[in-house]
Amino acid sequence: NTPPTEQEILELFEPFGAVTSVRLALDRFTDQFRGFCIVVMENTEEAYNAISALDKTDYKGSPLTVYESLPRTPKGTRGGVEKKRW
Fold this sequence. Notes:
The chain is of the alpha+beta class and 86 residues long. The protein is built from 2 helices and 6 strands, in the order αββαββββ. A two-stranded antiparallel ribbon has the order 1-2. Strands 3-4 form a two-stranded antiparallel sheet.
């Protein structure tokens, strides 16, 4: 399978609402597609509608996994408990 383009992902999500940005995750050393992308939508309800409609659907012969990303936790923490290094 060839990796998707940002335009293709934009066109996939646009029927559900305004898309603010699309970013394909690329390997920093090889510049190859890592198999996921980040889609930011203007409206939360529209984003949830896109998630519901697109998750577990087929895209170019592969199943999509679409979910809301969670904020990153600071390095050294897990589950809100700070990990100390001695």
